[in-house]
Amino acid sequence: MNEIKALKRSNGKWCYNEETLRTEAILCFQNLYTLEAHASGLFSVQMKFPFIETSLLNCIVRNLTSKEVRDALLEMAPLKASGADGLHAQFYQSQWSILGESLVSIVLKVFEGGSVDPFLNRTLIMLISKVRSELISQFRSISLCTVPYKVLSKMLVN
Length: 158
Prior knowledge:
This is Reverse transcriptase domain-containing protein. With about 160 residues, the protein is an alpha+beta fold.
């Protein structure tokens, strides 16, 4: 398991205390992902959007099929990062005969105007390091979503 054992704090001193490291990380990413007061507010968009041809519009608003759900799942890398539930795409792919109907039902309900179940939207945020990181700001966050959520996203893109 990867661990962050020490970080250089903003004052230039090294910190080895686990609780202080945790606090530093939380503060760093809260500051990064919090809107500042002066940045909020509405802005006007003054541009014309392109006309969508009827044939393309019909393609976009059509009903989706269980085959498309299965195809989206099978296009996923089997062992890429798992989500909060710990399951990889390979589990869903190999157990399609058992889980397929349920997964199709969940996905199609969302596309028919339903809401995304909060369990599906549970996401782990992990820190990764691209360089030898001394500062918390040198880590990048990635989101690890559940496979059903990834299927939903993939179908939107497709």
